[in-house]
């Protein structure tokens, strides 16, 4: 098994794992920000903006993730160019992350909107009576409560996001799964191939199980908070 479990392979996979974390983190940050905006617009916007937000959310949520990754990598560069010093591999990772974020933001939007709907409408009236505008009511009163309520669901989506980075392997982006494919192509025996698959699956399992355990711990800790 020295062809599988060696320092060179671990370093090679480690670089892919770092890219996986970077893409997952960037996707989560972008999708939470955009998802919050979409949720607010869908709940409190005028008829036209509500229709636009609803259209965006429903189109992305009801179509394949890989489709939007492909669209971002092969379509967006025709309209937006990156600086010339950005290599092709990093450019693909960037556009893949954009497509990933556009899709995930629609899921985050529905999670956050569920939290917004759980806040009593009387809190708006109380805030208005104290002279708060709609923006400051949302920013200081509604959103903090909303995020406390939806943190478990958001963390669960983060776990899903980490796993879904494996779709980027289909776009030749050198994250963990793609690098494991390169190593698998160099192995000849069934035992070695099985060991490599088990190694990569184990990496994903440890990361996602740890985050899932954190979600369950948070849910138990806050079970009686609301």
Describe this structure in words.
The model has no long low-confidence stretch (mean pLDDT 91). The protein is an all-alpha fold and 226 residues long. It is globular and about 70 Å long. The chain has one domain (7-221): MetI-like fold (Orthogonal Bundle), CATH 1.10.3720. Helix 1 (7-44) crosses helix 4 (88-117). The chain has helices spanning 7-44, 47-61, 65-74, 88-117, 122-129, 134-164, 176-186, 190-221. The relative contact order is 0.15. The N and C termini lie far apart (52 Å). The protein is 77% helix and 0% strand. The protein contains eight helices and no strands.
Which helices and strands appear, and what pairs or packs with what?
Blueprint: H1 7-44, H2 47-61, H3 65-74, H4 88-117, H5 122-129, H6 134-164, H7 176-186, H8 190-221
Helix pairs in contact: 1-2, 1-4, 1-7, 2-4, 3-4, 4-6, 5-6, 6-8, 7-8
């Amino acid at each position: 098994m020295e062809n599988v479990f060696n320092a060179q392979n671990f370093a090679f996979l480690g670089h892919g794992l770092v890219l996986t974390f970077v893409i997952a983190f960037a996707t989560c940050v972008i999708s939470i920000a955009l998802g919050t905006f979409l949720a607010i617009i869908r709940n409190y916007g005028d008829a036209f903006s509500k229709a636009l937000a609803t259209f965006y959310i429903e189109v992305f949520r009801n179509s394949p993730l890989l489709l939007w990754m492909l669209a971002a990598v092969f379509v967006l560069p025709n309209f937006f160019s990156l600086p010339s010093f950005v290599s092709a591999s990093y450019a693909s990772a960037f556009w893949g992350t954009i497509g990933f974020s556009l899709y995930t933001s629609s899921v985050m939007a529905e999670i956050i909107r569920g939290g917004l709907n759980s806040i009593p409408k009387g809190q708006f009236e109380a805030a208005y009576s104290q002279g708060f505008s709609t923006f400051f009511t949302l920013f200081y009163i509604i959103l903090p409560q909303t995020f406390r309520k939806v943190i478990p669901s958001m963390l669960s989506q983060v776990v899903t996001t980490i796993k879904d980075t494996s779709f980027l392997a289909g776009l030749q982006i050198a994250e963990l799964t793609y690098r494991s494919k390169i190593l698998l192509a160099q192995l000849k025996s069934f035992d070695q191939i099985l060991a490599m698959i088990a190694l990569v699956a184990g990496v994903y399992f440890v990361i996602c199980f740890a985050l899932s355990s954190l979600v369950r711990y948070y849910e138990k800790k806050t079970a009686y908070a609301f």
